Amino acid sequence: MKNIRNFCVIAHIDHGKSTLSDRLLETTKTIAARDMKEQALDSMDLERERGITIKSHAIQLYHHHKDGQVYTLNLIDTPGHVDFSYEVSRSIAACEGALLLVDATQGIQAQTISNLYLAIDHDLEIIPIINKIDMPNAMIEEVMDQIIELVGVKKEDIVLASGKTGQGVEDILTAIVERIPPPKGDPNAPLQALVFDSVFNSFRGVIAYYKIMNGTMKKGDKIRFFYTEKEYNADEVGILQINMIPKPEMRAGDVGYVITGIKQSKEIKVGDTITHHANPCKEGIHGFEEVKPMVFAGLYPIENEDFEDLRESLEKLQLNDSSLTFEPESSAALGFGFRCGFLGMLHLEIIQERLSREYDMEVITTIPNVSYYATRPRRRSSSCALRWTSPTRPTSTSWRSRTSPHKSSPSRSTSAPS
Questions:
Q1: Mean pLDDT of 34-42
Q2: Cβ pair 162, 168 in contact under 8 A
Q3: Which one of 33, 268, 323, 336 is separated from 68 by 20 to 30 angstroms, measured CA to CA?
Q4: Among candidate residues 39, 9, 18, the one with its CA nearest the CA of residue 180
Q5: What share of the chain is helix, strand, coil (3-state, %, to 5)?
Q6: Among 81, 168, 156, residue whose Cα is nearest residue 131
Q7: Do residue 26 and residue 171 come from a single domain?
Q8: 282 assigned to some structural domain
Q9: Is there a single domain that holds both residue 264 and residue 215?
Q10: Are 232 and 208 in contact (CB under 8 A)?
Q11: Nearest CA-CA partner of 274 in 208, 323, 183, 319
Q12: What is the domain extent for residue 259?
C-alpha cells in the first residue's frame, strides 16, 4: 500500500485537464505512442465532438520514481462543467489527493473554487498546478498570487506545466509521489469497498467500479452489497487501464472493477459498500450526498408502446449517471412518460443525446422548468408558503391545501401540470 497513490484532476471547464491527463499517460508509457490520441480517456463520441469531459474516467499508471521504486498511480479525470459536479464529488471520495489545475491565461474561476472546497471537505492533499504556461498571454505571476491567496500554499509548492508541450509533467509525477499520502486500510480486515461508479455492458451485465478501503477481494468470492443486501459471486476482478485488466485479487487501497453478472441495473447503487458474505463488515462506508436536481422536464416516447423501453433506457443511464432522477407521470396530450430531474440545461441536453445515440430512443421533451417557493401574505401578518414547478404562474384554482404537522394554521402548496 505504501507505493499506491490515488488522485483526481479537478479544474474549471476548459483549463486543460484531459490534455494534461494525456501527457501523464504518455510520460508513464501507459499508452503506446502509436495508440495515443487526444482526449484518450474520453470514451464517448459526444465528449470528443464537444471537447468536454462528461464522465469521470479512472485509469492506473505505473511511475518509476527517482528513488528506484515503482509507484502505482490511480488517476481519475473529472468533468469541469458545473452540470457534472456530482461526478467530481464521487471521484474525490475515492482519492487521497487532487491536482488542482488553473489556466495561466484565465486564472481562478468559479468551478476552480467549488471543486477546491469539495476536495478540502474530504481532507485531500492539494497540489496546485498552473497549466498552459506556454501560451503567449499566460499571466503566471498573477495566477500564482491568486492560488497562494486561495489555497494558502507556498510559491515553491505550485507546479508550472503545459499539457500541450509536456513541460513540467515529470515535476507533477514527483509531487504526486512525494506529497500525496498512500491510502490507509487493513488488508486483513473484513472487506469494505466503496462503489463510486458503474456501467452497463450488454454482454457482461453491470460492472461496478470501486475503491477498497479495507480487506481483500478475490476472484470467485461471494460478495454482498451492504445496503441493497444483494449477494453475488465475483466472476472477475481487476484494474482499470485503457482496457480492463483481470487480476487474481484486489487489496486495500486498490481502485478497480468487479463483474458479478448483474443484469438488472436497479440492483446496484453508486455509494453502496461491497463486503464479503461469509465475513461481512459491521457498517457500510458513508456514501455520497443525495443529488439535488435543479431543472425538471418531462420525457415522453414518440410511440406509447415504447414506454417500458424508455424506462429501461433511463435505468441504464442512471446506473452510469446517478445525478439523473426520474419518476413516472402522464399527460393528456403526450400519454405516459417520465418527469426527470437534471443538474442543468447542458445535463438535460446530454441525456437526450445519449438516449438517442446509445439506446436508439427518440423522445419528446417538455419545456424545462425549475422548482421554486413563494410566499403570500395572510391576515394578521402571517404568511403561507407556496411551491410549484411550472414555468407559468398558477391560477387561483390550482392551489391545494394541506395540513402542516408543525403549525396549527394550514399551509398550501401546488404542483403545476406538465
A1: 64
A2: yes
A3: 33
A4: 9
A5: 25, 30, 40
A6: 168
A7: yes
A8: no
A9: yes
A10: no
A11: 208
A12: 192-276
